[in-house]
Structure formats: C-alpha cells, structure tokens
C-alpha cells in the first residue's frame, strides 16, 4: 500500500478544518518524506515543528483511515513522537 504525500495531506485536510489546529506538527513518513500541519492546513514539507510524529506508510495510512488509534500506535511503538506531547495529544483527539 503506497501513500503519496499529496494524498495524505489531502486526507488530513479533510479531517481537520482550517484553523482548527493552532500549533505546528510534522508527520515523518518513513521512505516517503514529511507532511506539515498548522493552522493553514496540511501540505507536503519538512520544516521545524512543535512535534514530529514518525511512522511507516502503513501505520500512517491506518491512522488516517481510522483503523488505528494514534494513541494505540504510539503505545505499541508503531508511532514515535518527538517534541511537545500536549500538541501530539491535541492532534490525536482531532484525528480520532
């Protein structure tokens, strides 16, 4: 299963309304690149962020499709978080 960064950013924008997320987050998808998320929405990019979440493409796809809870992914080691845990929790609840 292959996830392109543009499709992933589009999926994130569909889950979050513009302005709903007031911090910066980076989703680092192993082997594909990164997606930036801020108050303007999601886009392909690799910039500094309040929190960086790293996962493989399959895990990220499962989170986006609602098949895998972000907290469960973190607890099982499929998702790593570097940075502000509060921002990560806020984003996880918005994606759930």
Element layout with pairings:
Elements: H1 5-15, E1 25-29, E2 33-38, E3 41-44, E4 51-55, H2 57-64, H3 70-75, E5 80-83, H4 85-95
Parallel strand pairs: 1-4
Antiparallel strand pairs: 1-2, 2-3, 4-5
- Would you tell me the overall average pLDDT? 88
- Assembly category: single chain
- Report the span from N to C terminus: 22 Å
Sheet with the most strands: spatial strand order: 3-2-1-4-5
Helix count?
4
Would you list the SSEs in sequence order as H and E?
HEEEEHHEH
Question: Strand portion, in percent?
Answer: 25-35%
Name the poorly predicted regions. none
Give an overview in words.
It is a single chain. The chain is globular and about 30 Å long. The chain has a five-stranded mixed beta sheet with strand order 3-2-1-4-5. Strand 2 and strand 3 (about 40-45) form a beta hairpin. With about 100 residues, the chain is of the alpha+beta class. It contains four helices and five strands. It has helices spanning about 5-15, 55-65, 70-75, 85-95; strands at about 25-30, 35-40, 40-45, 50-55, 80-85.
């Amino acid at each position: 299963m292959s996830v392109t960064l543009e499709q992933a950013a589009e999926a994130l924008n569909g889950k979050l309304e513009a302005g709903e997320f007031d911090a910066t987050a980076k989703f680092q998808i192993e082997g594909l690149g990164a997606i930036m998320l801020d108050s303007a929405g999601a886009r392909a990019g690799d910039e500094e962020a309040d929190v960086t979440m790293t996962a493989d493409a399959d895990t990220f796809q499962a989170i986006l499709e609602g098949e895998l809870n972000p907290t469960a992914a973190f607890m099982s080691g499929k998702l790593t978080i570097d940075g502000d845990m509060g921002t990560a929790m806020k984003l996880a609840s918005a994606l759930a």
